[in-house]
Structures are given as C-alpha cells and as structure tokens.
Amino acid sequence: MTLSIAIVTGILLIAFALFISEKFTVDKTAFFILSSLLITGVVTPEEAISGFSDNAVLTILCLMIIAISLEKNGVVSLMAQKIIPIVKKLPIWIFLPLLMMTVGFFSGFIATTAVVIIFIKLVNELDKLGKIDRSKVLLPISFAGILGGSCTLMGTSTNLIVSDISRKSGIGRFEFFEFSIAGVIFLLVSIPIIYILANKFLPKTPNEEKIDIHNKFGYITAVKIKSGSRLIGKKASETEIWDENDIRLIKVQRGKRHLKSDLKSEVLQENDILWLDLTLEDLTAQTESLGLNILGVDQDLIEEHFTNEYHEVIILPNSRFINMSIEEFNDTLPDNVYVKGISSDKKRSHHDNYFKKIFSKKFIIPGNRVLLTGSLPEIQKIANNNNLLFANTVITNPRIPTYKKIISFIAILLVIVLSATNTFSILKSCILGVALCLFSGCIQLKDAYTGINWQVIFLLAGMIPLGIAMHNTGTDMFIANYLYLVLKSVPASVIISIIFAFTMLMSGFVSNNATAIIIAPIVIAIAAKLNMDPKPLLYAVMFGANFSFYTPMGYQTNAIIYGLGIYKFRHFLIIGSILSVVLLVLASFLLPFLYL
Q: What coarse category fits the chief subcellular location reported for this protein (predicted)?
C-alpha cells in the first residue's frame, strides 16, 4: 500500500464514519472530503473543484429548477388532481396499487420528492373526507416514488451520477431508457408486495388521532426559569419536569455551560434554560404555572394574542431552515410568529439516547415537525416561501396563468424528448428547458435560488473529487484486487447480487449519491479484473443505492412521511427489509438475464 492509497483510504473511512454518525450534515462532510484531498495533495486544486462543473451536477441543478417551475406553477398538483377523482372511487385494493403506479410514473420524469409532497397533500385531503386511511397510503406512495424514480436516467440524481462515472471511465453514458425495463419490472413486482405488507403491518389511524395533536406528539422546546418560579432551588428530580406528566428534562443550559449528565440531582436556578420534551397540552398548561418562558419569546405576549393558535409545519428538503438551530429558526421569523417547539414523537422512543442524538446534531433536518404560534396568514406566507408543509394541509389550486402551466409542462416534455431521442445530451436538453422556463417568466431566478436543494449540490461537488482521487492513486484497483480474490470463482449473478446487497445496505445509512460515488469506481475496477461487462454491475450499484427502504433516513421522501408522526421506525424496518430481500433476489436473476 502506497502513502497516497493510505491517505485516500483513511479519508474514505473517516467520511464513512461521519456519514453514519451524522455528526455533521452531509454537505459539511463532503466539504471535509474535498479539503482533505486538497491539503494532502492527492488531487490538484482544479480536480478538487471539478465537481462544481461536473456534467451530472449541472444536470441535476437544471432539473431542480425545472421541477421548481412545475411545482410553483401547479403542473404536478393539476395532474394529480385530475387523476385522484378517478381512482378514489375504486375499492382500496385497486385504488392503492393504481395510486402507487401513478406516483411511480410521475417520479420517472419529475423529481420524486416534489411528486410525493403533492400526493401527501392529496392523501391528507382524502383522509379528512373519510375516503381513505392515510396511514395505509403514505408509506406506499413514498416507496413507489423511489421505485419509479429508478426507471429513467432523469428519475433520480443517483442515476445521473452513475451514468457520468461510467462516461468518465470510458464505458459510455447511459441512454435515457437504457435500464427502464429492469426499473419497470422492479416497480410492478413491488407494488402488490407493498400493498400486502401495508395492509398487514401499517397501523390504522384512530378517529381521535386525526383531529387531536395535543397528546399525540411530543415537542422539544427550550424554556427559561423566570424570577419567582417554584422550580428555583429544587433538584430536577423533585419537580414536575422529571419524568412526570409526560415531561422529560433533556438538558440544562446555565450561561455558556450545557449540562447533560447527572441532571437528576441538579439544583435549578433562576435564568437556567431548560430543554424539555413534552406534549402540546403540557406545553400550554405547564409553562406558565411553573414560571417558565418559551426561549426568546415574551410569554405574556403569546398568551394575550396567540392562545390556542398552533400550526404544525414539516421541514421539506429544500427549506432554508435546514441545518439551523431552534434559536436560529426563531430569530429568522417575523415578530408575530414564534417557534414553540420541534418534534419529538413520544410514540417512537422513550430512550434517552434518542433525545441525546437530537441535541448532538443541533440542527433542523428534513422531516422535522415544528410547532409555530402566531398569525396564520403570516405562517402560511412563511411556509409557501420557505418549503414548509402544513402537517394536515389541504391542497389548493393556485391562481396561475394557464400559459405558465403549459410552458412548464412543455419544458419537461422537451427535456424528455430531446434526451430520449439522443437529439441532445441530457445536460443540453436540461439547459434548454431551464431557459424556456426563465425567459417565459414561468420562474424567476430568485425562486430558483431559494428552491434549489443546495445541500445535494455541495454534497455531489465535494464527493466527486473522492472518485477522482481513488482513480488517480489506484485506490480503486487496490480495493478491487482484494475483492477479486474473493469473487474470481463466483458466478456473475452472485457478483451482481453481492454488489446490489452491499450498496442497498450502505445507502440506508449513507447518502444515496455518496454511496454511488464511492462504490461505482471500485465496481468498474472489479469488472476490469474479471473481464466482465461493467454495465450490469453499475446498474446494481444504481438500483441498490436508490432502493433505500428499510430506514426513514434512507431517502428524503421517507424522512418527510416519518416526520408526519404516523409511522414508527419499525414500520420502515419490517416492510422495507422484506421488500429489499425480494428486490435483491429479483435483481440477482433479472440484471444478468437482461444485460449480460
């Protein structure tokens, strides 16, 4: 092992540990990778920043802008609303499979997250009307979106990344529908399985839980001990904030000190800041009686103007509030809107480790529920402008000129036709689509700037130099040599199965794109050693990285529906694991049969 290989391997292992531990956000971890590679000299400055001009990254950026135009102009919601009245009249055993197929189809051509968010709104509306039980539907449509996005080149950013790695390696880029047969088969086989598993394992929503959030959810909130509070001078264990009345003390902040251990015997003082986990009922009833102020908020002002006005919003992937602390979030809001708490679903876990994990991150992530109080029109404006989803929102038809809907639809259709027919590359097609949206007034650049998921862009830009470093230093071949000794006498179908399984397992804890960028170069090197066509192995990486079903962290749409508080971790684990095993067995036969 050379020094340069040792350096790259060390950076790779540290990065993997950071992704798993979630000590930093994924984009910050990617920047650590970029800077480490540059400082150690294993890549040149030009190679270190090459990710920002990479074809795949720019294509993903353009597709995000087009998706923003489609969503902002109501194209996706319009299509969904035309379909829902037709399928909702059907019995559930037909309705849900058709709904999953619809979501899967849209996700093949429009950003999966945007599609699923629209259908979450529609499902919530149908649930309120008593047409369906949303707890039986939301997880299936998230899974269907993931499967559908895997069917075309533009369906997910992972597909574009693997295609670009293939192009740079001299294998050639993927065609638009090159792997669609396998993707469609995966989708069609999965739909009845998901339906059966959802019917068996997903909970039914009791009627009272549909309208009462006071006891269903817990919230993490910070409160300050006021002068005269009856908590002053008492040990925490002697008060109501110690595992009583559904209130749990998580942390005490005293000046610049943060006390997290031995809280039971801690004597509370005036001006201490307490981090509590409690239900909404206790949040409203107990804070005043205990002599506590919500952190940074005038309690008297809240009680006077905003009593009982609580609005629960969910953080979506593109929100500018992602990675903020609760205090930072509160500071960005207008004077008549306040943060009352951030989600901590008491139904999910009663273990201290869960809460410690929340506070070890110190930042808001997609899927978090945030409880706001204040002016509803102002909160609605904040939600619309900052990618926040009302937890029980009803979809509305925005008043948008018809020509904007038509042009936005033409833009995405143009991208599909031009790239699918090989008239232009997908990057050139996407640039034309963005130009059409911008110059027709369908979207303004300021909307694009705020709507783009910059975390994904910086993640990709930071990870791509790692692939370059692995190739330049021979790290990919070094790892491939050891794997070759294990795989040289193994049938091709088994090799594909192993790659698919490992990638799928890794993508449950590490970003899909990061997983693909790390594994794809190694797979190409293995294929060269085994004299195999690398394409089927790259398909295994691509599908395996996309199929993140067994954890709510595995895919953004899973995180969003997990944030709704309907499901527990075990629902993803049980249904996702069974589905993953089925897809693994299917891929072991299907990919070799179709592509070897």
A: membrane
Residue 139 CB-density burial (10 A; 0-12 exposed, 13-18 middle, 19+ buried): buried
Kindly give, in sequence order, each residue whose CB lies less than 8 Å from that of residue 530, ignoring residues fewer than 6 positions away: 484, 487, 488, 495
3-state secondary structure at position 260: coil
SS3 313: strand
Cβ of 7: how many Cβ atoms within 10 Å?
A: 18
Query: Do the Cβ atoms of 510 and 470 come closer than 8 Å?
Result: no
394, 77 contact by CB (below 8 A): no
- What is the average per-residue pLDDT within 265-280? 78
Q: What is the CA radius of gyration of the chain?
A: 25
pLDDT tens per residue, range 335-359: 778 777 776 544 444 333 444 444 4
The whole-angstrom separation of Cα 177 and Cα 520 is 20
- Residue 594 has which token pair? 């179709």
Structure tokens at 182: 């396998």
CA distance 1 to 494: 29
Tokens of 536: 């089927």
Encode 434-445: b = buried (16+ Cβ within 10 Å), e = exposed. bebbbebebbee
